[in-house]
Amino acid sequence: MSSITEKSVRQILEKLIDRVDVQEIRNLAKDFDVSDITLCLKHCQERAGKGTKHGFVHQDLVNILGERLGFEVKFGDHLHGADGVWSYGDARIVIESKTSAAWQGLLEEARKFVRDEKAVCGLLVSASFGQETVNAVRGGYPELRLVTTDGLCKLAQLRKESILAIDNIVNILIPQETYALDGLIDLVYGIKEQIKRPQPVEMIADEQKKLEEVPESIKDYDVVAKAMYAILRNRSNEWIDPTELAQEIKSNFPKTFNDKTVGQIAWGFPFAGHWLEKKGVLEIKRDEDGRRSYRIKAL
After folding, report:
1. What is the pLDDT of residue 299?
2. What are the residues whose beta carbons fall under 8 Å from the beta carbon of 101, sequence distance 6 or more?
3. Residue 279 in contact with residue 218, Cβ under 8 Å?
4. Domain end point (choices 166, 193, 220)
5. How far apart are CA 191 and CA 87, in angstroms?
6. What is the pLDDT of residues 187-196, one digit of tens each?
7. What's CA 125's distance to the chain center, in Å?
8. Residue 131: exposed, middle, or buried by beta-carbon count in 10 A (0-12, 13-18, 19+)?
């Protein structure tokens, strides 16, 4: 990302923080690329202060990264309780985030949130951690883990590039036994299996073949429309919102959409969805706020 682009992202975020409701910023940020989230987190850390909304936006950005990692995320209240709860299967992780490295006096509170939520662990997230915090967690808080925002963004990027599966990520974030090593070995082996992918030429040929497995009436449509159909066909009878659908497309067709972010893919849905609906292969449901969700039309 060039310095000009970075400057633009910072200016846009600052204008949003000054003028827009925090909930709306959260919704807009769900379409940000991981690199943009990384920059926005850094900006919030640099500008946070008493009376500003930077800390609230920082908290939401951390939770959005949780969604990118593949978790079901419950966003926390900005003033009370845990900052977030991430769930995957039976695993629940409590999230606490700060724009600074000052965690003194907050570790007991984080432990309480872990117990209240019946979570397997708590994840403390900030730009850095002082040695005092590291020593305290190491010495008396086995249910807590520490991760920097930079580390979390790197993890999200690995997930985006399909190098790590959600199961790998859960195993990384949940505390591992240090005396029984099989768990760590299984983790490394699972990552190795995840990155054993076909050569790019073979992969894109396979993707193109899947994208052509559509009704004759939409054979001439663009790849976004065909990808929408392909994903929805595999999840028949399910209503899927645009963000989830775009993430599925990016995950299942990584080479075809290599140069597109999840947000850019989703921007094509209103048009592609309209065409597919007119052809009778897709249904669109709109809620009271006009937000759309899609499903394949039953034959």
Report:
1. 58
2. 126, 127, 128, 129, 130, 133
3. yes
4. 193
5. 21
6. 666 666 666 5
7. 15
8. exposed
The verdict on 152 and 219 lying in the same domain is no
| pTM, two decimal places | 0.63
DSSP letters for 36-71: HHHHHHHHHHHH--TT-SHHHHHHHHHHHHHHHHT-
**What pLDDT is recorded for position 187?**
67
pLDDT in tens, 65-113: 999 999 999 999 998 899 999 999 989 999 999 998 888 889 999 999 9
CATH code of the domain containing 274 = 1.10.10.10
Looking at residue 131, which CATH number applies to its domain?
Answer: 3.40.91.70
Q: Which domain holds residue 123?
A: 3-193
Shared domain check, 162 and 14:
yes
